[in-house]
Amino acid sequence: MKKYDLIIIGSGPAGEKAAVKAAYYGKQVAVVEKRADLGGAGTNTGTLPSKTLKETALYYSGLNERGLFGVDKELERAANVRDFFFRKNQVVEQQEQGIAANFKLHNIDTYIGTATVKDPHTVVIEGKDAAEIEGEFILVATGSYPFQPPGIPFDGKFVHDSDTILNINRIPRSIVIVGAGVIGCEYATIFAVMGTKVKLVNSHEEILGFLDREICRELTADMEKIGIEFVFGSRIEQVEILPEEHTSNVHAKLTNGAPIEADMFLYAAGRSGASHNLGLEALGVEIDNRQNIVVDEKYSTKVPSIYAAGDVIGFPALASTSMDQGRVAVTHMFNFWGDEKISEQFPYGIYTIPEVSVYGMTEDEAQKKKIDYCIGRARYRDMPRGRIIGAKEGLLKLVVDRPTRKVLGVHIFGKIATELIHYGMDLVQNEDTLGRIVSRVYNTPTLHELYKYAAYNALIEGHYMDEPTGN
């Protein structure tokens, strides 16, 4: 039996970064991955594929350049599904190769097969690289899988979850997407831009309930402009798949009794932790009702030698936070220096078309906390750079503590919002004031000028202009 300092089950964002950190400090590390391809959902079915499809949809639709240069580009032929997935497949393959090279560089052993935790220090592997290995510590980083509501006939052809939608063999004429969370909204805009008729069904009366409501309204309005139809306050029931000769292959009823049909259905109704069949509960590891592993602030379970990180522990289930959770778990296992906890606040990136990214306090939260606040806004279309790139929509919004002029939150809707947010994140973390923002020099023309003009707008809205701006 080969012995390791650390055995990691799963090679996604949490598993990869934990493995490399431990190996960097000289620990002997093994990674067990059930798939033939490394990278987990982050590489193969989630983060990278959907974001690459977004860029593909923008390219084939010409949406970003439409009407800007006097002559719109035309493709020689209509894009088919092979074209649609071409770039996605390239990016996934390159990322998988990068992870494999990273493991090889750090002398990390990789086992392909299904893992079972036999005891607090032993993992049994079945499959291609069958073995029984021993580790001082075990990190479970098995990720999550799409939740499939009971009674829905998922067939991977007409009725999909967020994994199988990446295996479609045609671009549908119409699609019903159930669930208006991050995944549902991202795919809704991707398919709509590609020319698919999209209906987005949500049991609540709005999308993305954690967003600042003004930003949410901006996104909703833009989704409607590209043809997305919203069905709020209702659920899908009585789903039936019809033979292929029918115009619409999937027929269903809403809970209000109204019929709804489309070529395809996509259920984006949340995800559950992939903790089943690992043998963890028999060892005393606590697992909640969504199959998420329960951990403490050090990512340790109730079994001292077994840790867990990433989507398998539930919220926030982001690739970005999962990476740091894996690193922090390793820090506590071996008492390494640094990375003792991840930041309590972190940016959200939503890769709709256009993007949304947020950090810090929303206006709604400021109201609930009875904070004396003011708002600063700047729109893309009013910036020179915004005019150059033809941005018709886009908003940067600052939430500011009025007495101190400190920035409490930054909320962006528009192109490359997920890139622009990091400067806003620093503003909030450093407790920067409006005076400091307007006193800095920014490259022009750039979209970062949005921050300066939003700050000036906040100075006006907060009635500061007759007072010294200070620092």
TrEMBL record:
Sites where the protein binds NAD(+): 179-186, 270
Cellular localisation: Cytoplasm
UniProt keyword terms in alphabetical order: Cytoplasm, FAD, Flavoprotein, NAD, NADP, Nucleotide-binding, Oxidoreductase
One GO term (biological process): 2-oxoglutarate metabolic process
InterPro entries: Class-I_Pyr_Nuc-Dis_Oxidored, FAD/NAD-bd_sf, FAD/NAD-binding_dom, FAD/NAD-linked_Rdtase_dimer_sf, Pyr_nuc-diS_OxRdtase, Pyr_nucl-diS_OxRdtase_dimer
One example GO MF annotation: flavin adenine dinucleotide binding
Annotated Pyridine nucleotide-disulphide oxidoreductase dimerisation domain residues: 347-454
Necessary cofactors: FAD
UniProt keyword Oxidoreductase present: yes
A GO term from the CC aspect: cytosol
Membrane is among the record's keywords: no
SUPFAM superfamilies the UniProt entry points to: FAD/NAD(P)-binding domain, FAD/NAD-linked reductases, dimerisation (C-terminal) domain
Cofactor note: Binds 1 FAD per subunit.
Protein origin, superkingdom: Bacteria
Domain FAD/NAD(P)-binding: 4-326
EC number: 1.6.1.1
Top EC class for this record: oxidoreductase
Binding site for FAD: 51, 142-144, 311
Function, in words: Conversion of NADPH, generated by peripheral catabolic pathways, to NADH, which can enter the respiratory chain for energy generation.
Family annotation (PANTHER family): DISULFIDE OXIDOREDUCTASE, SOLUBLE PYRIDINE NUCLEOTIDE TRANSHYDROGENASE
Entry's family note: Belongs to the class-I pyridine nucleotide-disulfide oxidoreductase family.
Name this protein carries in UniProt: Soluble pyridine nucleotide transhydrogenase
Classification of source organism: Bacteria, Pseudomonadati, Verrucomicrobiota, Opitutia, Puniceicoccales
